[in-house]
Amino acid sequence: MAARWKVINLEEWEKKINDIKITKEDMNKLVMNFLLIDGYVDAAEKFYMETGTEHIDLTKVTDRMAVKSAVESGNVVEAIEKLKVLNPKILDMNRQLFFRLQQQRMIELIKNGKNEEALDFGKELLAPMCEENQSFLKDLERTVSLLVFENVEDKPQLRDLLDMSCCLNIASELNAAILTSQGLLKGANLCTLMKMCIFCQSQLLHLAIYPVIGSTSTFDYEDVSARLQQR
Questions:
Q1: pTM value?
Q2: What is the pLDDT, as a whole number, of residue 226?
Q3: Alpha-carbon span 226 to 95, nearest angstrom
Q4: Which of 8, 86, 143, 187 has its Cβ near the most Cβ atoms within 10 Å?
């Protein structure tokens, strides 16, 4: 059965990989892009000093990460104020993101036991937004429901609103919006390359038996002989 597929052993595969020439300059740019997109400012500064890779204004990165961190900490008001300084047009151009931020602001009020303030906030700011865009209404209704139930642990349709992952998701969306406004990709090039690698690897398995990367954390190869037995 194995004869139907081309078989490439580890030695041959590593030779093919080593024959691919990538310049140090391109590698440095890839690393720097990752550090900047993911907000590792100190590491990016040190990497620039060591490699002389094209310098980027790290102030923009610091400001972007300050906005992201504020949302992750539940300080939505602070995040919006910082964002207005960074780029006031972002929320004007993305009303859904603006609504999500304000919804999170209401949720944070509820978390802190400020129920009356949360209800007033919902009426004054979120309700008018729902009149403009009916697609927001369901999310507002879910948020208001938090005021009705003292314990939402048995309410899976509401429980996620109070979960930390909700803040993290909004922070990620906001971070992506800022990157886009700065003419950058939403994710690091390195991450995109890894996704392409995994996809191409899965497609190549239909044509050949070769050393497959089993783990993207260690980059260890799987045993080719095991795949031969499976085929």
A1: 0.78
A2: 60
A3: 53
A4: 143
